[in-house]
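User: Mannose-6-phosphate isomerase, cupin superfamily, Saccharopolyspora shandongensis:
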Amino acid sequence: MAYYFPGADGVERSFSGVTIRNLIAGPERTVSVAAVNLDGVHPPSISKLSDRAYYIIHGEVEVTVGSETFVASSGDAVFVPKTTRHSLVGKAEYVVVNVPPFDPSAEEAAD
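Assistant: Predicted structure for Mannose-6-phosphate isomerase, cupin superfamily:
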């Protein structure tokens, strides 16, 4: 079992002002961790599978979780229960933890 995950090995994906780099991922894991750089809008989405925790490293984002909207900045944490609509808007670097691990097939866009 691997316990060390060099940063250079992370898979990276980008879309509409969002760049996500996997830090810890894989089907054998019980958690996934990714570093995210947001410059714009992370569109509204719903995870049918994972609870999510966001930790804002740098910057500020307007976060909507369900019907609640608030501003999160450096040092703040946000929890999003699975099946809850959420979105982020702003310019920030943050870490997102998914339990169980992120699975793109369990994601749905939310308007």
